User: Fold this.
Amino acid sequence: MLTGFNTNVPFRGETYHVQTEDSGEKASTVTTLLYLDGTILSRKSFNYAELLNAGGWKEKVCFDGVTKSYGPNVALRDVSFSMGKGELCFLTGPSGAGKSTLLKLIYMAERPDSGSVYFDGVDTSTVRQSRVPWLRRRIGVVFQDFRLLPRPVFDNVALALRIRGMHESDIKPVVNETLKLVGLRHKSDAYPKALSGGEQQRVVIARAIAGEPSVLLADEPTGNLDPDTAAGIMRVFREINARGTTVLVATHNRELLKSTGNFIFRLDGGTIREELFE
Assistant:
């Protein structure tokens, strides 16, 4: 066990730099920010591998010096940040800042040009392509453009479970409970075209969480919604987070973030910084 490291204390970890050891090899150094009810208690630095070996690594997602470019355009430049298990965080920044790229790196639709992306302590760049779908089962994704099938709401939510091979007798109670969580149990037989924009987004959320992912990513989930409907969608995310799911919401609408008390990761010009909205 690491000296002075208490695994019972909730903490945030932020990867700040790559430290050169005497051997000439490079190893990630993690600075952990211990906090309780928003109050910083202390900072401690640990070697990333030591944290994993000690069983003390509590970060769900960690970026370590990640750079991603598309031709001459740099989307992310030496980005380092992390999210703890069970946290609700927001990713903000202007259009084109790299928010969607960052999310794609988490669910492995893209690979970094340099640096590492860790998910549950696993360096995703080392994961064989054949194993990516298995790891993605632990990640739910909510897209802005809905991507719903012209099928009843129930079938849209059940789709991911059927792909996984879940028995039909087990699918029904899971889908019904999930629709109840997002307030759409009474709409299970309706078709997407008969739903409002906010209701369609709730279906997308239900589909993303039906498989009980440990992380939920949302890419501009309120971008096409009016303020009241957007506020309702945010309440759904908070309820999902309250049940233990780590949630990262990407949005350019900073009005949604006011008085949240949550950590905000702001992307601008391919770089990232962290702030706390109170």
User: Anything to note?
Assistant: The CA atoms of residues 34 and 72 lie 39 Å apart. Residues 1-46, 51-57 have pLDDT under 50 and may be disordered. The chain is about 25% helix and 35% strand.
